[in-house]
Amino acid sequence: MGLIFTKTCVLCCKTLDADAGKAAMLCPACAKAVREQYRCTERFQIDGADDAAAPLLYTGAVADAVKRFKFKHRQHYADWFAAQTLPVLAERLDTWMPDLVTFIPIGVLHWYQRGYNQAELLAQRIAAPFSLSCAATLWKRPFTPKQSGRKDAAAREKNAKRALWIRAGIDLSGKSVVLVDDIITTGSTAAAAVKLLREMGATHVYVLAPTRTPSGRRD
Ligand SMILES: [Zn+2]
């Protein structure tokens, strides 16, 4: 008897039918829900960015999947979230004309606990099909308070600005940069990163994430 390989749905964790195919990552019910409930169609802005986009709403089963992706070692979910995000970049490729894909960093302590940065896994998978370079450009300070603990927008903005800093020796002069994160919430972290990328010389900065909170105003 050979090994029985089972795959589970990224959104509801149910076992997928054996005949679903090697590439399948969702059960039919969740695939339908993605089409009907989870599409993010609203346009939104990030302070300082030239444009921003996200294909999915961070709510319900999608939000739960992002949490498993981040905190429960479901690194392979990066494939599914990147697959949702790639068409968004494809649509904008001629306008954005990216030279580089980069990502929001996580603190060193989190990196050692988790072993990966979910935004980096996404950025790599988003850059590769377009043969774009993907590189780290920013650091995260190890002991900054969590954004979710900040009460209001002003406090989150201040906290976000303190949390990030520039990696030495990177020149983004004249470059168009796509900044990838896993969720856009208030946008204060992305806005702080955009500001730093511009200080590094980037002429255009675009923000791309697989998910965005429906209101855009909470963590
Ligand atoms: Zn499912």
Account of the 3D structure:
This protein has 219 residues and is an alpha/beta fold. The chain has 2 domains: 1-36, no CATH class; 39-212, Rossmann fold (3-Layer(aba) Sandwich). The protein has helices at 28-36, 60-71, 77-96, 108-114, 118-127, 153-163, 188-199, and strands at 51-53, 56-57, 100-103, 133-134, 138-140, 164-166, 176-180, 183-184, 204-208, 211-212. The strands form 3 sheets. A 5-stranded parallel β-sheet has the order 1-9-7-3-4, sandwiched between helices. A 3-stranded parallel β-sheet has the order 2-10-8. A two-stranded antiparallel sheet has the order 5-6. Helix 6 (153-163) packs across helix 7 (188-199). It is globular and about 50 Å long. Zinc ion binds next to helix 1. Residues 121-214 form the Phosphoribosyltransferase domain. It comes from Agathobaculum ammoniilyticum.
Q: What number of domains?
A: 2
Give the CATH level 1 class of the largest domain: Alpha Beta
Whole-number mean pLDDT? 91
What distance separates the N and C termini?
Answer: 48 Å
Number of helices: 7
Task: Write the element-wise H/E pattern from the N-terminal end onward.
Answer: HEEHHEHHEEHEEEHEE
**Which band does the percent of strand residues land in?**
5-15%
The appropriate CATH architecture of the largest domain is: 3-Layer(aba) Sandwich
CATH topology of the largest domain: Rossmann fold
Major pleated sheet: 5 strands, parallel
Q: Fraction of residues in helices?
A: 25-40%
**Strand order, largest beta sheet:** 1-9-7-3-4
Given helix and strand content, the structural type is: alpha/beta
Overall body shape: globular
Bound molecules: zinc ion
Rg (CA only) = 17 Å
Work out the number of β strands.
10
